Amino acid sequence: MELRLGLALPTPNIIKGFDLDNHKPKETGGLGAWNKPSKRSFEQAFGNFKEECKAKTLLLWSGQPNEEEDHKDQTKTTFSTIDENDAEEVDQVMGWPPIKTWRKKIFRQQHRVGRTEYNRVADEENGGSVYVKVKMEGVAITRKIDIRLYHSYQTLTNSLITIFTKDRKCADDDHTRYTLTYQDKEGDWLIAGDIPWQSFIKNVQRLEIVKKWG
Amino acid sequence: MQKKMAYSFPDEVLEHVFSFIQSDKDRNAVSAVCKSWYEIERWCRRKVFIGNCYAVSPTMVIKRFPEVRSIELKGKPHFADFNLVPDGWGGYVLPWIVEMAGAYPWLEEIRLKRMVVTDESLELIAKSFKNFKVLVLFSCEGFSTDGLAAIAAGCKNLRELDLRESEVDDMSGHWLTHFPETCTSLVSLNISCLGSDEVSFSALERLVGRCPNLRSLRLNRAVTIDKIANILRHAPQLVDFGTGNYATELRPDVLANLTGAFSSCKKLKSLSGFWDVVPAYLPALYSVCSRLTSLNLSYATIQSPEIIKLVSRCPSLQRLLVLDYIEDSGLEALASSCKDLQELRVFPSDPFGVEPNVSLTEQGLVAVSLGCPKLQSVLYFCRRMTNAALVTIAQNCPNFTRFRLCIIEPKTADYLTLEPLDIGFGAIVEHCKDLRRLSLSGLLTDRVFEYIGTYAKKLEMLSVAFAGNSDLGLHHVLSGCESLRKLEIRDCPFGDKALLANAAKLETMRSLWMSSCTVSFGACKLLGQTVPRLNVEVIDEIEPPGSRPESFPVDKLYIYRSVSGPRFDMPPFVWTMDEERKILHSEFRHLL
């Protein structure tokens, strides 16, 4: 009896019909980044959106959901054979950490209401995407963008204009000026554009578009 | 016919004396004294606790104890809580209800944990036991609100209905209306697990209003904050209250109403619920805080400053359940405010995140261990730990009875020294001589098991995951822990040797669970066939273990002692290692 099951993921995961390309067992049984985006159809992606977010952002869509969406629902639609309880465990070890099923349900519900704490999520498996939250003053929804899709402040601001043009309420006229601000690693809020782009993308934790005074 | 010694007491006197002996252990001791005591005792035993529903059959229980009024049964293994036990494994209560319906017409109390309860079972309970008073379904499943309606309608003297953490299928919201207007006997009602539409609020209000002895009420999430005040005004005598949803946009009138309602509850000592908390409503609780002994905030996503504000007003707090939003700073505040604290449970707010989302570390637990001398029971989820911290905690709290530490990432070493956490846990078992329950985590070698086997003489339950190097680890535990009753292991390199060498030990324990270890099918068969009164069950959802070589490891293994032989209700993915029964089983399988 030399065979060691050791720490390989338990075999029942395989019978659940996982897409093995997306599901890489890790030797250490460690936890993968559960924020990993999954590809799915456009309709599905936007199905949960409120009124403000009608179909748009065609330029930037990379499969990453915006904050209001439930990540767990994504996982559910991609791996249709998984039942509710296992939705989060796609990338993780079965039954670990040891948290009761009903408590996990509550986490899921809470996260659905947009209580995730992450401002910046780096996703190694998707070629180093770095998702950063973007909020615009006066707009209810906080978005997430992949900062690595841009190579300069200009391209970033152009995109943001495109994204948020339709979000602005009608009361705001086109003469309102906005400033792009960002929060750095130390937690300080600064005006974007002062530091070289490469430093900026390493530092930026989140973005906020605020109305200019005066 | 027994000879009665001239100087022995009449039976009635003995029976009267025995009625003062409540604990099962003492009762068992009494029954072992002599035959006549055995006889007298068994006729007057009113309460039976069966820790594993498959350890004994209903027939045997009824035969020995014909006059039982209260029964407690546990079904699935503990790891079922974490989805490690497949659906359909077992733990059905119906066979028990069927037999007790005939044998115990005066049964008053049924308490079940991790069992499958059907509506049929509930209907049978409502029909069969005329004086039924207490139903507790802890982490059960398989029933719907239809079954609850039957209980409500049929049990005229119902005192306690507690559905904690159970999964209930929602058929309609009106099961509560089935409580007749004449029902005024409720003392405890816990419906916190029910979903959104499963409770008719007006029926609830009326029920609460007409039960003057109601002491404990735990609402479900669907009950909104504005309704709480009404409920409390109907039941100011409550001792234990579970709110529903504790959120809505701040309205001064609602806040004032709530504050008034809480302040009229002079006996309130325990609070729970608090789904979706809006912090602005927390001050409504302040009048209750000074008397509060138990507080469950483990669904509340409020941040550390708000938690601190609340907790520092609760000097009498003995029990706190909270999310890790409390952070180290909150735990320090807890340590300085709540000197009577006995139990602390800190749950992770983001268990599947890779990065920590809160500042909760080993420091928080150290602070509580220092500030709260009465601390006995800990459940702590965190992301880092050190041996030094564990040693300090052990020295500060030699009175621990339950210590469960879950470092979220498996095999995490001491983050300062990068060493295994053997020494830290070793200190826990060495200093805490009354430790009954221990859960390990982090990077651990066989060493930690050596410590456990050496020192943990009172340990009854041990949970192990991703730990150890070899069979020696398991051997230390099985050979050293004299009081061990339950052992559950997952993902450890433990195999045949330790198990076979300690086969006799297994009969002294309630159960052993091993999954993703390296125990071979051959060893399982050997155990099952050679150790009497031991049920060895192999769980494999992919293919029969017998279709592979005997040296192959089994996926999951559940071993438990039993006086009623292997069970007959095993699903296709569970195999018993008892040869004779297996033949019988395969013959009867088509009947199941």
Summarize the helices and strands and which ones pair or pack.
The complex is a heterodimer of chains A (214) and B (592).
Chain A: H1 12-15, H2 42-46, H3 71-78, H4 101-112, E1 120-123, E2 129-136, E3 143-146, H5 153-165, E4 178-183, E5 189-191, H6 197-203, E6 206-211
Parallel strand pairs in A: 2-6
Antiparallel strand pairs in A: 1-2, 2-3, 4-5, 4-6
Chain B: H1 11-18, H2 24-31, H3 35-44, E1 47-50, H4 58-64, E2 70-74, H5 94-103, E3 109-113, H6 119-128, E4 134-138, E5 143-144, H7 145-154, E6 160-162, E7 168-169, E8 188-190, H8 201-209, E9 216-218, H9 225-234, E10 240-242, H10 252-263, E11 270-272, H11 286-289, E12 294-297, H12 304-311, E13 319-323, H13 327-337, E14 343-347, H14 362-371, E15 377-382, H15 387-396, E16 402-407, H16 422-431, E17 437-439, H17 446-455, E18 461-465, H18 471-480, E19 486-490, H19 496-501, H20 503-506, E20 511-515, H21 521-530, E21 534-539, E22 556-561, E23 574-576, H22 579-588
Parallel strand pairs in B: 1-2, 2-3, 3-4, 4-6, 5-7, 6-8, 8-9, 9-10, 10-11, 11-12, 12-13, 13-14, 14-15, 15-16, 16-17, 17-18, 18-19, 19-20
Antiparallel strand pairs in B: 20-22, 21-22, 21-23
Family (chain A): Belongs to the Aux/IAA family.
Keywords (chain A): Auxin signaling pathway, Nucleus, Repressor, Transcription, Transcription regulation
Function (chain A): Aux/IAA proteins are short-lived transcriptional factors that function as repressors of early auxin response genes at low auxin concentrations.
Protein architecture, described:
The complex is a heterodimer of chains A (214) and B (592). Chain A has 214 residues and is α+β, with helices and mostly antiparallel strands. In chain A, 23% of the residues lie in helices and 14% in strands. Chain A has six helices and six strands, in the order ααααβββαββαβ. In chain A, strands 1, 2, 3, 4, 5 and 6 form a six-stranded mixed beta sheet that branches. In chain A, a hairpin with a 5-residue loop joins strand 4 (178-183) and strand 5 (189-191). The radius of gyration of chain A is 20 Å and the shape is elongated. Chain A starts with 11 loop residues before the first helix and ends with a strand. Chain B is of the alpha/beta class. Helix content of chain B is 33%, strand content 16%. The relative contact order of chain B is 0.06. In chain B, helix 5 (94-103) runs parallel beside helix 6, helix 13 runs parallel beside helix 14 (362-371) and helix 17 (446-455) runs parallel beside helix 18. In chain B, helix 10 links the parallel strand 10 and strand 11. Chain B is built from 22 helices and 23 strands. At the A-B interface, helix 4 of A face loops of B.
